[in-house]
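Weekly structure sync, notes
Attendees: PL (lead), two postdocs, one rotation student
Agenda item 3: pending single-chain targets
PL asked that the sequence for the first pending target be pasted directly into the notes so everyone works from the same version. It is reproduced below exactly as submitted, 130 residues in total.
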Amino acid sequence: MSEFRLLHTMIRVMDLDRSLDFYCNKLGMKLLRKKDYPEGKFTLAFVGYGDEKNNTVIELTHNWDREERYDLGNGFGHIALGVKDIYKVCEELDAAGVEVTRKPGPMKHGTTVIAFIKDPDGYMIELIEQ
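Predicted structure, written out during the meeting:
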């Protein structure tokens, strides 16, 4: 069988600048590349913690003509990020206006310390202390 590698996860966003602020300024990712597609009326922005050659990244897709929020559905779960001091990170994110939907603490039926936050479009992000 061929070798596979996870490249990116794509999510649709309403306000690209707001999403870039969230992922880059609040979560510390870098904008790796961004391109407008005028013919298709959309912009793609790739963000992550390292280059795409060696890291999995997030593709933010902004459709220019979209006016109503996306239905997040019930099939998508969350994006997970590893952090060193989850309590400090959540305190800083909360102070920066990020919605912390589940305060840090051990997960049910386990010992792993987790928390959940929401991005500007309501996508859930799990923080896992490592």
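Discussion points:
- The chain has a mean pLDDT of 95.
- Strands lie at 8-12, 30-37, 42-48, 57-63, 79-83, 100-106, 113-118, 124-129.
Action: rotation student to compare against the earlier draft before next sync.
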